[in-house]
Amino acid sequence: MNRLLVVDFETTGSHPRQGDSIIQIGAVAIDDGQVTDSFSTLVNPGQAIPPFITQLTGITDEMVAEAPSLEEVFPRLLRLLDGRAFVAHNASFDLQFLQEALLSQGYYAFDGYVLDTVELSRLLMPTQNSYRLGELASDLEIEHENPHQADSDAMATAQLFLHLMDILENLPLVTIQRLQMLVSSFRSDIDALLRFVEMDKMAAIPLLDEESGPNEPSGMWDIYRQLALRKREEKGTVSFQRPANAESSLAPFPEMLEGVLGEQGTMPQHVSGYQRREAQEAMMHAVFEAMQDGTHLLIEAGTGTGKSLGYLLPGIIWAKQNQQQLIVSTNTIQLQEQLFHKEILTLQQTLPFDFSASTLKGRGNYLCLRKFEQALEEPVEGSSQEMRLVKGQMLTWLTQTQTGDVEELSMPPTGQLFWQQVKSDTGSCLNRACPWFSRCYYFQAKDRAKDADVLIVNHALLMSDLQAENRILPPYQVAIIDEAHHLEDAATQHMGKQFSTSQLLFLFDRASVDAGGAISRLAEEWESWLGAPQSFVSEQMEKLKQLHPQLRDKAQQWTQLLYAWASGRAEETMDAGRETVRYRVESFTGKQERIKKTTRKLIDSMTAFAEALEQLVQGIPSEEKPPFSIRSLRTDLFGLLNEWQKVVELLYFFLLEQDPQYVYWMEVESRTARKHVHLSAALLKVSDSLSEPLFAQKQSLILTSATLTVKNSFSYVMSRFGLEELPPSRVRTLSLPSPFAYEEQGLLLIPADFPAPGKENEHTYLEAVVQGCIDVVTASKGRTLILFTSHSMLRLVYQAMKERFANSDESYTLLGHGIDSNNRSKLVGLFQTIERSVLLGTSSFWEGVDIPGEALSSLVIVRLPFTPPNHPVYQGRAELLKTEGKNAFMSMALPQAVILFKQGVGRLIRHHLDRGVVIVFDTRVVESRYGRSFLQSLPPYRVESGPWPELRERIEAFLGMPSLLDS
Q1: Of 100, 176, 744, 930, which cross-links 16 as Cys (Cβ 3.0–4.6 Å)?
Q2: How far apart are CA 759 and CA 897, in angstroms?
């Protein structure tokens, strides 16, 4: 493994046995950790290169016309490969072309070691967002000038491999040995590489200090119970030590503010280019006064206000002066991390006193080390390769993480299910009796949270705390809720209930009675402890072995029935790849009565199995203390029984006993072969759940967002949050405009001659949208974000645009959400780096996407973002409003759409130097009576409407102007 050849082939397609050929070879030799040689050449494939390959690689028929044949160049490649391991990124692709070429030219097939840097990257870099070569190279600052050209790809892969070897060689020996047990069935020869590294480490042991051995902690590792953890800092709060002559934190707020923000203040000294903003300072004063007076405050702060500092600075000063902890809640974990790692650090450097900050997430976000240790004891044989990879990723991650937070991990779908097995939870926690207690990620996070001056959480945890009657978060009276327009959705999600058929099957897998499972291991440990077979144990095990197969059979039958019923009725709403159907339990009559009968039989079988398992677990003798292995397994199985009971209750809730306070629906996956059903239920009215326990009980809550008003009124969000129930003196509102000059920076175009969207003329409308998008993209030279309300419409437009651009002289890169990737961050990153690119997105792209500068110059809104009328939650709430004598469209659908429309338009102008055009292809915005609600809620863009052939001429002219001149 000291000698390797990193290879990359560019080819005419993916199938060498069907005639696809190599058109370029790149190879890089590595000897003893150093690049020693390289080789690259174009190859004449003897056939035309398909246009999409030329578009991808830049290699044309003309370029290969005079190139040597494969037969001519192959001997040089084989000399380099002789005696070396074969390394490639996605090695199975390149290996199949190598083997086919060898056989076709009369050589023996390659039988040396094969290493795949995709597999190795997933194993050793478990926190990466993507394992594509281009993105790995970018993240690791590896030079990679010509992606999809073999010479550049091979060199980038070689540098990536050397980086991976550095990671591997720096891992502790115990982790290398643990990984070896997991990777034996991997496609590439990672097990051989690990053996090689292990032997190197073992050979170095005599050279170590006499007082330390291979399994003892070094400066970086905490090695305990055969697991290596990264050593953690004593306190995981962010802190900053002030100079000895720091000002007092008790100065009046205006005086302190001037000391921070003034010309001689600390903010201009520490933040390069800081400029005072009138709206930001107005926000600071309003936040401080609301906290001081004990009132709630709703603030709409336009883009560019500096909202985060606008609430953090006064909030921290007030909390410090009043010796209270400040809670800050965000909707997204990304903003939670940004506040913690950026804004908090800025304020710790600029405020005239010390303060500490920490983050906290729901308990299920943290790894339980005891459960993970147990999971590693399960037999490797019989587990899938993906499951082994997940366990390997987590072993590596333990040497990197200080938080144990699942958000750091990038796991395949199997990993999401495995996480349910190893996450921290109340039901299976040994607390101080656990040998891992002093190292527990969750309890350490709780300790940090309790001691911090500022605690940053997310809306999900805030809602969970409400449901748990304030037993999760430290007691608080003052909180700031950012991205507050999401508060109702967060309450709907976290005060509702969810379940899926895949969860049920995974639960049954965890209750396996096969050898190696927790139940069998408990029986074995029990008999080993007492030194003899136990008749009670064998009787209970026999009973469980008879009951378990019935569980699987009934679960499969139940799943098939549910899927058949749901898939025959489901329609697309808003979620990618999901189709939805609302239901009521009373719907299951006649032939559908079978669903209820099958559910009852499933519950009966589950109850019988749980009773037998409980008898086994409860039967452990308590006269003397069992060994830890038994106590640990017993705790896990009590946790499993607890979860089992919750699932039985959910089955009753979803399919046998309907609660009138909820709306129920099922979702099926429409784009995969997996026949799983997701069941959900949401409270019809969450305002009651927010008004009393949150707003009525707390002293001061600051709710802020860039979009809280509709036509400059807060009445919609106040009604949805239940704030109308409070005395008027308890609630204040403030609307702060953006500092941007929208009249000069932005232009909003509304074609008046577009067909109206609707089923009767859907084809005509689609044609107009496709041509309109092409016109915008051409005029903007790419640099366009297109927002959709439907994934099906996105796919149709994407395909049509791709075909038309393929047949034209214009070349653009289309990036479709759910087509090219489901990862929003990855797509946005590609859009910002690829010239002449177009980004097509749905729901998640309407907000939280920040693309300043010329990378985004035009924004297309295809349709006004009304919630689909067939969305179950909308339907249920609309019916409720109707019974209250209200118009559901005017009091819910329209305000929701306006707020999302404002968010969408807000993607364009992100900086005072930005310039851009918004195009709305939905004529209802000017033709309907309610359309003015959308336009009146926007910043003061210059708005133009008229025939599209005239309007589209304005795009290029506007984007090319140094400043907007009067027409």
Answers
A1: 100
A2: 20
Annotated binding-site residues for ATP read 301-308
Measure Cα distances from 459 to 463, 481, 496, 691 in Å: 6, 8, 14, 16
- 544-599 tens-digit pLDDT: 999 999 898 899 899 999 999 988 888 776 655 678 899 998 878 887 889 999 99
| 3-class state of residue 840 by DSSP | strand
Phi and psi at residue 671, in whole multiples of 5°?
Answer: -115, 10
CB atoms within 10 A of CB 519: 24
**How many Å apart are CA 823 and CA 845, to the nearest integer?**
11
Quick: pLDDT tens for 139-193.
898 988 888 899 999 999 999 999 999 999 999 999 999 999 898 777 789 999 9
Residue whose C-alpha is closest to residue 357's, from 401, 327, 333, 330: 327
Give residue for tokens 């107009």: 768
C-alpha distances (whole Å) from 581 to each of 578, 587, 593 are: 10, 12, 18
Smallest Cα–Cα separation from 698: which of 911, 435, 466, 930?
466
CA dihedral 647, 653, 655, 659 (to 10 degrees): -170
Are 367 and 422 within 8 A, CB to CB? yes
Residue tagged 């190139």 (tokens): 67
Q: Within a 10 A sphere around the Cβ of 237, how many other Cβ atoms?
A: 21
What is the C-alpha to C-alpha distance for residues 740 and 742, in angstroms, rounded to an integer? 6
Catalytic residue numbers read 148
Q: Two tokens at 121?
A: 């990257």
Can you give the residue ranges of every domain in the chain? 3-205, 361-449, 499-683, 742-960
β-strands 22-31, 34-42: how paired? antiparallel
Considering the four listed CATH numbers 3.20.20.70, 1.20.58.100, 3.40.50.2300, 3.30.420.10, the one that applies to the domain covering 3-205 is 3.30.420.10
For the domain 742-960, what is the CATH code?
3.40.50.300
Secondary structure E strands in 629-744:
662-669, 677-683, 700-705, 731-736
For residues 44, 50, 52, 57, the Cα torsion angle rounded to the nearest 10 degrees is: 0
If you search the block for the tokens 């304030």, which residue do you land on? 470
Lookup: tokens for 316 = 């921290």
CA distance 785 to 910: 14
Claim: this prediction has a pTM higher than 0.85:
no
Strand partners, 70: none
Q: Which residues contact 236 (CB under 8 A, 6 or more apart)?
A: 358, 402, 403, 444, 445, 448
